[in-house]
Amino acid sequence: MSQQFSYFSPGPAKIPDEVLSGLQEDLLQYKDTHISILELSHRSKEFTNILEDCEKVVRKLLKVPDNYRMLFMQGGATGQFAAVPLNLLSRTGKADYITTGTWSEKAAKEASKFGEVRQVKLDNTEPCKGEEFNPFNDTEASYVYYCSNETVHGVEMQAIPKVPDGVPIVCDMSSNFFTRPVDVAKFGMIYGGAQKNIGTPGTTLVIIREDLLGSPLPSCPAILDYTLLDKNKSVYNTPATFSTHVMKEVLEWVSRQGGVEEMERRCIQKSSLLYSIIDQSNSFYSTQVHPTKRSRVNVVFRVGTGGGNEAKEKKFVDEAMQQGLLSLKGHRSVGGIRASLYNAITLDDTRRLAHFMNTFLKENHSA
Ligand code: PMP
Questions:
Q1: Is 76 in the pocket of ligand 1 (CB under 6 A)?
Q2: At 61, which helix (H) or strand (E)?
Q3: Is 11's C-beta closer than 6 angstroms to any atom of ligand 1?
Q4: Active site positions, annotated
Q5: Contact, 343 vs 197, CB < 8 A?
Q6: Can you give the pTM of this predicted structure?
Q7: Cα 22 from chain centroid?
């Protein structure tokens, strides 16, 4: 029997096999165009249909209200760290950032180039209390920003911050986009890069309430200008055509699987399997993240009693790789192990990892 492989990468991440098979055909010839999907003009009828269908499936999956617009942008989520202030800061010149890890901190740093940024850093070892997630009571901020899932630290916010009426909330959902239902109406804007749950790098999906368009800072470059992109239906310049197509295909797959409600059910099931092993390992496996903030999509943990042991972690990653369990090394800034359980990771993939973790525990604990 040939060896099975499971790919737990934090991104670019696994794409469902069914989608990959369809893409193989599209690479040789897209529909009846006689050309590859890679060669398709962004002004063609076929690409216009791809964009429209992609928007349609996003609207359906997240039940996006009619007063929200959708933009397909380039520059990754990092591009949005600049685009958000450049488009949304003009009301007061101030913005509030709730930070929980690497990505929200990077976003706050970038925004501070364009205006006055206030930052509150949450303690991830503490529970996500309602009041804790309401750090800015009285704010002149043009918006309040947070990241719903910190990919490096494995921290997922289960609540939406409570902010004063009229202050829009902006959220980076790059790593848990479409892994759970979202009440879009609670947000001014949400966004995410494609390469984790919804495709391959290139396209960043922005969903923004229409009244927030129309007042970019004068210095906002055209390529990051939401108002300009909206007027031009995301084809102001050449967009990431292939990546947009992949996004549409992946989201249609999500829809066929039962939508974001089903993705959430699976994410809970998959992550619980690993967290229960961590919790029952007598501290051989450990995580500092408070149980109420544990990510369902990036399970981050240390291996070895006393909060982690680099030699044991290297052994864990190496032996896992020999078993066909790929890309489990934690982010270089935090070390340890990270198992990313995005939508394309099956329960079977997760069970294989769980089995490996149990065996590794037996063979190495107090050894
Ligand atoms: N935000 C989050 C939550 C991320 O996980 C990442 C990438 N890992 C980024 C932003 C940056 O994304 P990009 O590399 O597409 O700029």
A1: yes
A2: helix 45-62
A3: yes
A4: 103, 172, 196
A5: yes
A6: 0.97
A7: 24
- Best residue among 98, 153, 174, 224 to mutate for probing ligand 1's pocket (most ligand atoms within 8 Å of CB) is 174
**Is the pLDDT reported for residue 337 higher than 90?**
yes
What distance in Å separates the CA atoms of residue 149 and residue 265, rounded to the nearest whole number?
Answer: 17
Instruction: Evaluate: CB of 174 within 6 angstroms of ligand 1.
Output: yes
* Distance (Å) from CA 28 to ligand 1 centroid: 31
> 34-67 pLDDT, tens per residue?
999 999 999 999 999 999 999 999 999 999 999 9
Beta strands at 298-303 and 337-340: parallel, antiparallel or unpaired: antiparallel
CA dihedral of 74, 75, 78, 79, whole degrees rounded to 10: -80
> Taking each helix axis from N to C terminus, what angle separates 45-62 and 241-257, rounded to the nearest 10 degrees?
40
What is the 80 CA–ligand 1 centroid distance (Å)? 10
Q: Of 333, 201, 347, 165, nearest to 274 (Cα)?
A: 347
Distance 226 CA to ligand 1 centre (A): 19
- Provide the percentage of residues in the chain whose pLDDT is more than 90: 92
Strand partners, 69: 208
User: In angstroms, what CA-CA distances link 83 with 80, 141, 226, 247?
Assistant: 4, 16, 8, 21
Question: How does pLDDT run across 269-314, given as a tens digit for each residue?
Answer: 999 999 999 999 999 999 999 999 999 999 999 999 999 999 999 9
Strand partners for 337: 301, 329
Q: Is the CB of 297 under 6 A from ligand 1?
A: no
| Atom nearest to 10 CA in ligand 1 | 8
pLDDT at residue 181 in the model: 98
Pocket lining: 264 vs ligand 1, CB cutoff 6 Å? no
